[in-house]
Amino acid sequence: MTDNHSDPRAFGFDTRAVHAGQRPDPYTGARAVPIFQTTSYVFEDSESAAAYFNLQEYGNTYSRIMNPTVAAFEERVGNLEGGAGGVAFASGLAAQAAAFFTMLQPGDHIVASGALYGGSVTQLKHLSRKFGLQVTFVDPDRLDAWQAALRDETKLLYGETIGNPGGNVLDIQAVADIAHSIGAPLMIDNTFATPYLCRPIEFGADIVVHSATKFIGGHGTSIGGVVVEGGTFDWSNGRFPVVADPSPAYHGLAFHDTFGMYGYLMKLRAESLRDLGACLSPFNAFLFLQGLETLPLRMDRHVANALGVARFLQQHPAVERVRYAGLPDSPYAPLVARYLPKGAGALFAFDLRGGREAGQRFIHSLQLWSHLANVGDAKSLVIHPASTTHRQLSDEELAAAGISAGTIRLSVGLETLDDLVWDLERGLDVAVAGARVDGKTNGKTMEVVA
Amino acid sequence: MTETGVVCALPDRSALAEISKYQDPLVIRSILLTARTIAIVGLSSNALRPRNFVGFYLQRHGYRVIPVNPRETEALGEKSYASLSEVPERIDVVDVFRAPQFVPEVAREAVAVGARSLWLQFGVISGEGARIAEEGGLKVVMDRCMKVEHARNLGRMHWLGFNTGILGAQRTTN
């Protein structure tokens, strides 16, 4: 046998970030992943078409359900997370909704971290109102709260590797054990850590969701999301007839029985993606693949810059507190050592003295930091959560998410660290001085109060 | 013939510590690349059964699939035989969908008919069956799905975003 692909070597993360999910195109030899900008695919013959629709053969039918460019992205993220595979969606929230849709039915109960991204909290509350799901939000730092929230009808525990903007680091293994004690899976939003910093499946999580819009892309050009499943959860344990029983939505196919470790993902694609329709565009998948190639390099730099910025802020008199889990005196330091040994990411919040007005003066006086509602860009970003991302939340929910009126959230980018610190220092001067002078700095740049 | 413990649910793998010895990627690829005739023990004619999915797939990919199942007369357009010894052709691979306690008997038959490999499907775990087959000169794969391994190594599993774990810089044919 002449076969030079058979070396069972376990390739390193950086190698897989560049190669996983794609080999040179069989027709053209194209080394880059081609953009298959096509809605549909010609069948070889009617038997092949039937086999594809019956899921008896892996075949392309329609780009709402599968596309070769998107598949390369899905496999790469699935590989990097150590899962059975991935299914991509038009956004992170679409991915999250589809993950729920695949495994839950009315009356089911979810226990979720109260520190989830505001958009996730809103989605869960909306789903509970409209589709009869029950949701209990808990303090993610308290294992007894996760345990106490369990009910007979609990079908899912859901948290984030790193909370936003409180910076909570989840004890993934412990929460996974609590979930598995009742035969429920643990789902983790790993957007802020990325698989480079943390792979939740290695710690017992069953499903990982990402907003690929953030660090996976890293360029702030594309919206997308992806669901990865570990392939080890027993969907046939009696709690998930919606996954295990013959499906009325797919001519009686029993997905877990038929596809084993790939059953959940096959159902997620063949039913949920098909029916909800929020497919990722091939062009966005192509851009995310470009991002993934440099993910390890970028994340190292993001982390180094974040740590530098956090240390600067920590010693500044205008700053009340810095909530970066990567600081040695963070209450999350032991969890960071276990789950995030390469760094605690590049997103964190700090609280400015002077509250809301000082926060607004600060943001508007920055030159390099962009005031916008995204994170995980190569560019450094800044936002005031209480008036933007978390605006829909009540005061109690804000407090549960660890946010106050003076909280500023940073997404530390890849610029020269000294420049980032220089800009922040000027902004803090304005924030403090503005309180003394007239409060109307409003300047785009730096002529103010220098 | 029981269906339990085969393909569905998650089997008990603690009984066989050295199970990975029977999951060698080199052996798996070698079998997939050289086999022509596959006898599927326990093949069902019910198109919704996983074992039928596997047989259908392998047949589609050019293997001659021979059903071996006393409860069937025909499956996938092929005559079904009650036992391996009744199959009037040379068999390259014996692919087994049976509960683990029946595997030693199947392994003895596989040795007797001169098969080259014994392939135990996902969840079919039998150290004794593997030993019998190995002593008879057969290659053994255990707790792996032949369809999935074909699709991962030679097929189109990557078209649906599954993690094949396979990467490389050579041009592929699929």
Can you tag this structure with a few keywords?
heterodimer, A: 450 residues, Aspartate Aminotransferase, domain 2, 2 domains, five-stranded mixed beta sheet, 12 strands, disordered C terminus, B: 174 residues, alpha/beta, Rossmann fold, two-stranded antiparallel ribbon, 7 strands, 14% strand, globular
Describe this structure in words.
- The complex is a heterodimer of chains A (450) and B (174).
- Chain A is built from 17 helices and twelve strands.
- Chain A is of the alpha/beta class and 450 residues long.
- Chain A has two domains: 13-291, Type I PLP-dependent aspartate aminotransferase-like (Major domain) (Aspartate Aminotransferase, domain 2, 3-Layer(aba) Sandwich); 295-436, Aspartate Aminotransferase, domain 1, CATH 3.90.1150.10.
- In chain A, the strands form two sheets. In chain A, strands 1-7-6-5-4-2-3 form a seven-stranded mixed β-sheet, sandwiched between helices. Chain A has a five-stranded mixed β-sheet with strand order 8-9-12-11-10.
- Chain A is globular.
- Chain A starts with 12 loop residues before the first helix and ends in a 14-residue tail after the last helix.
- Residues 1-6 and 437-450 of chain A have low confidence and may be disordered.
- Chain B is α/β, with parallel strands linked by helices and 174 residues long.
- In chain B, 28% of the residues lie in helices and 14% in strands.
- Chain B has helices spanning 25-34, 50-60, 103-112, 127-135, 146-153; strands at residues 37-41, 64-68, 74-75, 78-79, 93-96, 117-120, 139-141.
- Chain B has a five-stranded parallel β-sheet with strand order 2-1-5-6-7, with helices on both faces. Chain B has a two-stranded antiparallel sheet with strand order 3-4.
- In chain B, strand 3 and strand 4 form a beta hairpin.
- Mean pLDDT of chain B is 90; it is low at 1-9.
